[in-house]
Every structure is written in C-alpha cells, then in structure tokens.
C-alpha cells in the first residue's frame, strides 16, 4: 500500500511539472511573439506565466533554453504509423500545418525560427531538429524501396523543410495561414513525383483534411517524454 | 547641332538621376539591413547616401516607397530569351541565387521581405511582384505545351516563390548563402518532374554554374526602365 501511495505522489508531482513547464513555454512563446526575442525578458515571461523564478529556472536555465523549448514544440507530437514511410512524411507535414493554424505555441515556434532580428539566438537548432527527423523518415523510406534510386535523403529533407518554411510564411502573409493545409498538399504533389517510386506515389493520401481526420480519430498524441528531455 | 546638344544634356541628366536613385536605394538597403525597417529613419538614409533631402524626395516619397524600390531590385534584370520558357524560369531562379550571394542590394531586398518585425510595412508586394512574373512565364510555358496538363500556373508560381524563399533562408543560416545556387538546382530537380512534359524536362540545363556562365557571357542586363517606373 505504502509504495503505491509513493508512486501516486510521484506521478502527481510529475504531472504538475509537465503542466508548469507547458505554462512557462506558452508564456515565453507569447512574449517572444509580441515583443520579439531580443526585447523579451525573463521577468515578463515570469509575470505572464504566474510562476516563481525557482520554478522557471528548474525547467529552463536561460532565455535561449526557453527558445529551444519553444522550437521543440513543433515536433512534439506522435503520429500513427503507416505501412508507407512517405505517407508518414506527408502526415507530419499536414499535421504541422494544422497545428500552425490552431496552436499559438507552434506558431510562435516558427515565428522565432524565422525572426531575423533575434540577436544572439542561434536559430539553426529549430531547422536542425526538423531536418533530422525528416531525414530519418526518408532514410527509412529509401531502405523500404519507396524512393527513386537517385534520391539523397538529407538533400531532399533540407529542401522539404525549407520549402515548408517559405510556404507557411507566404500563407501567413496572404491569409493568416487559413490555406496552409491546401498549400502543403500542393507542395507534396509537386515534390513527390521526383522522389517516390510510382507504385507508392499512387497510393499516398495527400488531402488537406487528412490531418483533421487523424486528429478527430484521436490518433495524434503529444510526445511528453521527448518534451521533458529537451528542457 | 543645338537639338543634339539638348538631347545630350537630357541624357546626361537622366544618367545622373539613375545613378542618384541607385545610390539612395543602396543606402536605404544598408540601413534597413543594419537597423531593421522599423528603426531606420530617412535621416540616416540621407546621411549614408550623401544626397540632399530634395534629391531623395524627388525619387521616393516615403520610407515605404524606399522599401518598395528595394523590393523591386530583386527582379530588375533582363535574361536572355530561350527556346523553352521553363529554361527561362530556371535561369531566373539561378540568377537570383547568384545575385543574392553577390549583391548587397538584392540581399537586403529579401531580408526586408522576410523581416517579421517590419511594423507598418506591407511585405506582400515583394512576393506579389515575383509571383506575378513567375506566373507569366509559366502561363507562356503552358501555352507552348511545356507543362503537364494538370498544372495550374498560379499555384505552381506561388509554391516556387515560397520554396525559393525558404531555401535562401536555410542557406543563409547554414553558410551565408555560399551553397544557394546548388540548393536552387536541387529545388528545380525536385519540382520540375511534377510540372514539365518529359521531352522538355530532359533538355533543361539545371546546373549551379549556369548563372555565372550567362553573366560571364554578358547576357544579363539591368532593366533600367522598369526600375525607374517603380520609384
């Protein structure tokens, strides 16, 4: 009985820590978004989050670590496995488009990565994490015979990430990202014929409402483990 | 004789005006680049350019008009016509990559278009001008039977411009755009199989040194007429 109680206490404490961490990240994202990274101060983030200085520094050692935590939120979701790795790649793009449209924290993450005025902030990790994940998926797709023989997974991953970034920026300027999921399907429809073997290409589901359907089916889960590691 | 003299005077005056305009744009680009659009003042631009207030306001009515003039520099170059419109599209991308690497004014133009902190600046014209030009080229390519039947020139143009923007941003973060021409060939090699009919695709020259060759052959000319109109 006693050990169950201890475990229950530990779990409650961990859940609280996850919630606090999330509150701090959301506050940091909002302050970065409104004031820009350079002008934002830890004091403002503390005030917005309504947590103690100790709680903040328990999770994040500096303003830069807060930015890294915000960056990591782009990828902090687990997608349902598919028989085709290229379908998983398409799903990750469409889900990111949906989250950019609906989650302020994910939006701030991308805004921060594109903020040219962010003095002293190394913005390469934001792209690096995302490129690494895409390269892994494409390498698996290649091993499974889904890619045309000349395709270099790293080169294609860098192009996809770069093109997605530019696409979300144009969608933001044009209509506050309301058409982002459609634009991401256009991106995949243009890119994949130069990448996928025809038999795989023909079976991919590249439709703007796919991410919404996965979400409605409850098949998108936050990656709490990964999130906790980053802080 | 007299009319020849008048004409010569008029031409000298016009050449001087073109040079002054260019000096002002270069100064504006440098100040926007260093201070950001929001903090930059007309006074700083005047000081940097070493021209009178009257000269500046003759060419540009406001800080926003200066920004529009800087934007327009991206496109202010005339490329040699090719038998394939898709080759002209490839050339325009490769030449822009070369100019981004070598011309500070073009670099500032793109920096300004991507500057999320540029308060009160409508950044859509920077993309709009570029998308319009790309759409025109693709519409001509379609009329000439170079495109696959399902291709929508506007949709493809928006995707190409967005993908190019993201690509130059990643290249800038990674290596100050030293590999931009290579990345742009990767972009075209991925996109064009989904766009071009195979017989045209097979004959395109998509090589990183193509823009340098056109430049060495003296086949890239500034479009002074267009530039003068924008101001």
TrEMBL record, chains A, B:
Q: Domain named HTH tetR-type: which ranges? A: 18-78
**Record's Pfam families?**
TetR_N
UniProt GO MF annotations? DNA binding
Signal peptide extent: none
Q: Which UniProt keywords apply?
A: DNA-binding, Receptor, Transcription, Transcription regulation
Instruction: Give the DNA-binding residues.
Output: 41-60
NCBIfam families in the record, alphabetically?
ScbR_bind_reg
- Identification of the protein by name: A-factor receptor protein (A-factor-binding protein)
